[in-house]
UniProtKB/TrEMBL annotation:
This is Tetratricopeptide repeat protein. InterPro entries: TMTC_O-mannosyltransferase, TPR-like_helical_dom_sf. The lineage of its organism: Bacteria, Bacillati, Actinomycetota, Actinomycetes, Micromonosporales.
Length: 295
């Protein structure tokens, strides 16, 4: 005999795995009647997965009618997942009207996803003004994708200090703008805030390339940092330490072809690689004037 879980959450999941969906729905319906929006969300997800769209929609509408907190947003998410984008946008606007947490930022995300970028930008700034500072991170990405780096930096700066927001990406944006002194200050603030991995960026932005190179070598001495060879290639090429690149390449060729690929692509991201490149050599990697990403 199969041991059936007793806990309602575990039991519902187990019943679904056994193909006993109706029984699982019965359990979740009981939870949803006295629970919160997460219980309704779990139930409606299961209904949607099994093609019972009208029932799922009716549950969310009932939850909204009953005044269940966050029900508007839950319904909007369901509509978006179902591809009913315009209705989902209307749902998030309703969530904004009733004051659901982070509703305006979620509305902005959906607007951006559907190509309504100007509207998304407006909603992001409204969210930031209303105290949702972390929305500045997504807004900065939106601006950056459009090549508006000044606005991206302004947006990201508005998010600094919000819970879970790293400081170092502001430095990257400022470096791309050529505002090196401000970038250095941003990286230093990041290091002071405990973002220790940013030290190499700080040293590189300060022009202390030898120190940055040593930090990268220290990282490479530990497992799990293969992609840091990209930075090593760039740093060595920026310093015209070509013999060291050749030596690294010979070592990697015998046992780490992925690392070799990173090393060479990093070297090609330095302008010095192309200045010293023979007439018949080719490189399709974009040149950057700042420390490249490890990816």
């Amino acid at each position: 005999m199969i041991d059936e879980p007793i806990d309602p959450d575990d039991r519902a999941e187990w019943l679904v795995e056994q193909g006993r969906v109706d029984e699982a729905i019965t359990i979740l319906e009981a939870r949803a009647r006295g629970g919160d929006w997460l219980d309704v969300d779990r139930l409606t997800d299961l209904l949607m997965e099994n093609g019972r769209v009208e029932e799922a929609e009716a549950l969310w509408r009932a939850a909204i009618e009953a005044g269940l907190p966050r029900a508007y947003g839950g319904f909007a998410d369901m509509l978006a997942d179902a591809g009913r984008t315009d209705e989902a946008i209307g749902g998030w606007r309703a969530a904004v009207e009733v004051g659901e947490p982070r509703a305006r930022a979620r509305l902005a995300v959906l607007l951006a996803r559907t190509g309504r970028v100007d509207e998304a930008i407006t909603e992001y700034w409204k969210a930031i003004a209303a105290g949702e500072a972390a929305a500045g991170v997504r807004l900065a990405k939106l601006y950056a994708r459009a090549g508006q780096l000044d606005e991206a930096a302004r947006a990201y700066r508005s998010a600094i200090g919000a819970e879970g927001v790293s400081r170092w990406p502001l430095g990257v944006l400022l470096e791309k703008l050529g505002r090196v002194d401000e970038a250095v200050a941003a990286y230093r603030a990041a290091v002071d805030a405990g973002e220790g991995h940013v030290r190499v960026r700080l040293l590189a932005a300060q022009g202390r390339l030898e120190g940055a190179t040593q930090l990268v070598r220290d990282m490479l001495a530990e497992p799990g940092h293969n992609s840091s060879y990209r930075r090593l290639g760039w740093l060595l090429t920026e310093q015209r330490r070509f013999e060291e690149i050749e030596a690294e390449a010979r070592l990697l060729k015998d046992g780490n072809l992925v690392g070799l690929s990173y090393l060479l692509s990093g070297a090609q991201q330095s302008a010095n690689f192309h200045e010293d490149c023979p007439a018949d050599c080719k490189g399709s990697v974009r040149v950057v004037r700042y420390l490249p990403e490890c990816r």
